[in-house]
Amino acid sequence: MTRWFRTGATLLFGAGIGASVSRLPSVRGGAEEEERAGTLLSSVPVLPVPTVQASELTVSPGGSGALMKYGFPSLANIKTRESYVTSYDPRTRTASWVIERLNPASLNGPSDRKYCNFKEDDRSTNADFRGSGFDRGHLAAAANHKWSQKAMEDTFYLSNVAPQNPHLNQKTWNNLEQLCRSLTKRYLNVYVCTGPLYLPRQEADGKLYVRYQVLGPNHVAVPTHFFKVLILEQVDGRGVELRSYVLPNEPIDEKVPLDRFLVPIETIERASGLHFVPNIMKRTSSLQAITAR
User: Fold this and answer.
1) Are 97 and 275 a contacting pair, CB within 8 Å?
2) Cβ neighbours for 173, distance < 8 A, ≥ 6 positions apart
3) Per-residue pLDDT tens for 181-220?
4) Cα(291)–Cα(293) distance, rounded to whole angstroms?
5) How much is the pLDDT for 63?
6) Are 44 and 277 in contact (CB under 8 A)?
7) pLDDT of residue 61
8) CA separation for the pair 29, 77 (Å, rounded)
9) What is the pLDDT of residues 21-47, one digit of tens each?
10) Would you call 233 helix, strand, or coil by DSSP?
């Protein structure tokens, strides 16, 4: 039987970044915003997990077969690394998405970040970021892959980073990464798909525009937002829980709880052009429509 859990869905939009694609309110406090946010509560399905063979659980944490258990969000420019699988977008010089699988085995090991350096690949360079005011923000986080020095080093390829506001990268985004790791204490596996978004904003003429900065001679795109989609396999094998987050690429008050950035997964699919639910359906017996209230 399919079970459900409910979560609030609110995006935090900074100054000048309007609630565009999904028309979600900003997190600014006050009774009016709280009431509007309440209308965005959504029912997220807990899906039955297919039978998992022992071999799937004993492969290396970064094994691509296990990583892609729930399918590919898109099929362009796929690249497999030691610790993740990614789809690279040559237009933006960043990844469209990165998928990794977290469990206690992937989070423990002898690897050390001090031996890692950012490595140039594809069409961006360290010079593109130098003096830009943006961090080289990991999509697949280094701390997620302590099981192997090479696995951690592979997270330092520039194709696995995107320009990220330093305050966001070091504060709220880091908190979200820590949350993903903490969930491995409650779930069998935590599949994490991370990527950039380029959302429209309403400008003075009342029209919506997609505008973003580019960095360096290679014109590396600066995302307006970032997303994380979590597929959480329950330890007892009874189901899969879905959580999806969108954060703006700007400073966020640390007092704002991460739950305020939960959104319906369709919001991310619509904004990114990626597909998650159809892939999960292939691994489940049924999927009921997600409803909002």
Assistant:
1) no
2) 137, 164, 226, 247
3) 999 999 999 999 999 999 999 999 999 999 999 999 999 9
4) 7
5) 55
6) no
7) 58
8) 42
9) 333 333 334 444 334 333 333 333 333
10) strand
Q: How far apart are CA 288 and CA 150, in angstroms?
A: 41
Catalytic residues, by residue number, are 138
Q: How far apart are the first and last CA of the chain?
A: 22
pLDDT band at 51 (very low <50, low <70, confident <90, very high): very low
d(CA 192, CA 243): 10
Please tell me the predicted confidence (pLDDT) of residue 142. 97
Helix or strand run (H / E) with residue 89:
strand 85-89
Each residue's pLDDT tens digit, 65-84: 578 988 999 999 999 999 99
Close Cβ partners of 210 (under 8 Å, ≥ 6 residues apart): 198, 199, 200
Cβ atoms of 75 and 65 closer than 8 Å: no
Q: Distance of alpha carbon 266 from its chain centroid, rounded?
A: 14
- 3-class DSSP string for 90-117: CCCCEEEEEEEEECHHHHCCCCCHHHCC
Q: Which amino acid, one-letter code, is at 132? A: S
Locate 198 and state its tokens: 């380029």
Tell which residue, 253, 245, 248, has the closest CA to residue 29.
253
Tokens of 116: 């890692």
Q: How many residues does the chain have?
A: 293
Q: Which residues have CB under 8 Å from 117's CB, separation 6+?
A: 156
Q: Phi and psi (nearest 5°) for 107?
A: -95, -5
pTM of the model: 0.79
Whether the CB-CB separation of 217 and 210 falls below 8 Å is answered with no
Tokens in use for 89? 């977008």
Strands (E) located in 90-224:
94-102, 135-138, 161-164, 187-197, 201-202, 208-209, 214-215, 220-221
Can you list the domains of the chain with their CATH numbers?
A: 52-236+266-280 (3.40.570.10)
